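Backbone-to-sequence.
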């Protein structure tokens, strides 16, 4: 089982910790505030209040055995993030992911040995702008340099056609990896119900319907062009 430690249980850290736990990971949730620890203790494997700059306390908490440690500290806690990162490096933690609020903070943390720096506020801004500009584009997850996995509503112009007919890879340079559909049916009592179905191996005969969503892989530019109907 993959084990994570999340240090800092504000809104971001608590959300990360609970999401990881819901997906089957073993999570150690840590914060100096006992109230925050109390609020999350029933949702993760272990939750404890301690000084995360104390290397001995981190070792006693089992952090040295974690596959990944996530630092979800506040924007003004750079000094604390530096001290915790140094302690984690002394413990031999292999992968450290840290929040940063500026490029300067990011450079400092990366030089100290943080594996990856994330900018949550910046990412939220990008997602909001993308949603406003392209409502049919629901989510986009970076896969590498200029490559992404995106969830897109099937454009009206494509409804009723098969993937084979559309030739999306040739026309748009994108690959469809899954089709998500909502199907209506009647339950045992004759009442209308709906269920979400996912075709994770769509083929050329897969026909698109109103309300379907496509999971597609391609460059940022090609995904936006498809979603915008260019």
């Amino acid at each position: 089982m993959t084990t994570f430690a999340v240090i800092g249980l504000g809104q971001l850290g608590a959300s990360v910790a609970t999401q990881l736990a819901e997906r089957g990971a073993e999570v150690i949730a840590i914060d100096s505030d006992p109230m925050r620890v109390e609020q999350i203790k029933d949702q993760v494997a272990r939750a404890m209040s301690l000084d995360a700059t104390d290397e001995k306390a981190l070792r006693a908490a089992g952090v040295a055995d974690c596959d990944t440690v996530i630092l979800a500290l506040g924007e003004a806690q750079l000094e604390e993030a530096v001290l915790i990162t140094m302690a984690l490096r002394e413990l031999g933690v292999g992968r450290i992911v840290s929040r940063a609020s500026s490029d300067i903070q990011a450079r400092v943390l990366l030089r100290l040995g943080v594996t990856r720096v994330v900018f949550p506020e910046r990412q939220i801004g990008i997602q909001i702008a993308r949603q406003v500009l392209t409502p049919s584009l629901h989510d986009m997850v970076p896969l590498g340099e200029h490559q992404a996995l995106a969830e897109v509503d099937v454009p009206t112009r494509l409804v009723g056609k098969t993937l084979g007919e559309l030739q999306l890879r040739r026309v748009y340079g994108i690959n469809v990896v899954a089709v998500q559909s909502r199907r209506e049916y009647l339950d045992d009592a004759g009442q209308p119900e709906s269920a979400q179905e996912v075709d994770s191996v769509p083929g050329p005969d897969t026909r698109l319907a109103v309300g379907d969503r496509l999971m597609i892989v391609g460059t940022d530019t090609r995904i936006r062009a498809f979603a915008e109907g260019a």
